[in-house]
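Researcher: I'm preparing a figure for a lab meeting and need a structural model of a single chain. I don't have an experimental structure, so a prediction will have to do for now. The sequence is pasted below. Please return the structure as tokens so I can convert it later.
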Amino acid sequence: MDLLPTVFEILHKKLIESFYEEYGIETNLLLDYQLYGFDLYDESSPNIKTYIHEKTGIHINGKYLYNKQRDYCKGKKEITFTNPYTYVYFKALGYENLLEFLNNINLNDEDFLAQQRLSGVGMKNELPDEYYVGYYYGEDYEIIKTKLTIYNNYQNVDWTLVYWENEEEPSQYVYRGIVAELRGTTTFYFAKEDAYTDRNVMISVFMGNKHIVNRPFIMGVYSGFDRNNCPVGGRIIFERYPSEKEQEASALSRDVDITIGNEVVNERIRVDPILPQTKSELSKESKDAVNLLRYEGRYEGYLIDPRNGDLKKAHMTIRKNSNHASLIFTDRKIYSGYFKLFGNGSVLYGFFGIRRSYYKIILILDSDFLEDKYLTGIYTGTASKNQPNGGRICFIRDVGVPDDDRQAKLLYAKNVPKPDSFLYDFFLGKKDLYAPSFSTLKKLNSQFGEHLNNEYLRSWSGTYLVYYRDEDIRFVNKEVLNIMEIGNIFLKSTTSVYTGNARIFGSGFLALNITKHNNADFYAQLLIFIGRFEAHEITQLTGTFNTLGKDMSPTAYRVVLRKSEEPYQKVKPQRLPSKGKQISSLFKPAELSELLITPIHSLKPGTELPSKAATTRLPESETIKPDW
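Model: Understood. Here is the structure written out token by token.
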């Protein structure tokens, strides 16, 4: 969008005046970088960047308006804006768009008409604008709401992503794009140059003819990049609204319609940021995929009917040189599916279903053949009458024995396993459902089993606030830690999310091992002393945070953990100034001085180790003082 210099001059002047009035600033004593909010500005002091975010909920680049003001001073004939700056400044002043702004300022007729021709606002549209709220499954395992607006005679489109990064108010990221149509399929192209983010996005939907009036829903797919610049794609559904006001109200509500949510949940594809050099490096499962060739062929399956205890037959075929398989279950329906190997090739998973049907079956089998022909495991799913079903199952590889002869050998009488047969031992002669034992679960996921078995570690689960000194001593980092019952941990900072696991070892030490930083390999460790205390007895813990500094030198900081009563999702990480009421209300002077002490040790490549290791006693909170 382009503005005439006269229009920009009025817009800029009104923004400055409104900003001064909001914060009670009487004279213009602010330097440019503090006024607009860029470079070395003080975030805690008034600035236009923060002012606009408070008014609109949209994060902007503070230097953008400063640069446009310089363009104006240089005498440019047109001042060009890209999203979200095409409307965010007007919204901060209380106007919905440029047209409403033009109608409420003192502008002569000549400039008004010139601005209309330049930007196209207020011109007669052949087609009305359309307003949609979109839904897709995002990278944080939640459904993201968006706003889609088609305008200017179906030539332009705006797409706004609504993220609840701050639990109190949403953040909005805006893309501006163009519309392309071909045989009823419409594609929206969003270039990074016209977006608040630095990523391109494309959305393809089926809309029929653009003149169709009754179009309450449209469906399609999106393709773009996630926050780690990994290619992603998935299903997206848009619901139409009669006005921009109703669209805004729905998009900013955290409620998601259960029917729409059910359609898009898990409908997402992510491509890892790797460049495989061999086929075995395509994914974690690729190196085991070649072993699937072992399972090609025909199988007869046996399971116990949970309704009456009878032995039932199933048939399965795994196609040659492909991953396609078919399964004929006890209901005589033909299921199509595929197999994958997991757990370093130790577990064979089969996923089966019937197209356009809710019938689903999952097989979890031991990957090793018993006696060179038996595949054993469990099945679960919905079969006849859509009832949940499950139990043990055994498949026998076809080795050329006629069906009647094999059945005679395996069955002692009709629908009863022969007492001395493999099937009899496998089913143990029982007629009820069989669920996997704890040892089976542990084999499927040894890490899960280990964590579930560690009751003491589970007692330490919950949300903690983590305080330690920033590399810039003027600040203290407040980060949010979530220890899950299964031992997984999530550490949320102002810019990143770290994941890993928790361990308790030795004579009372809690080790929080961080192995991923925004899904990339990483390592750091929080080592916390817990002694002989129980989790419910403690509100504060102290320890060390061993990590890498910005210059990649090994560094250790003192760290304080405090139990939080609020859930992990609702606590916001912060950088707190190391001086002032905010930090002094959290720590006693002695505690704060210990927390702000220089790193315990920071070793850079090429430096010599100290001749004598320094010993430093960490402060003990009154709440965890030992009683022995």
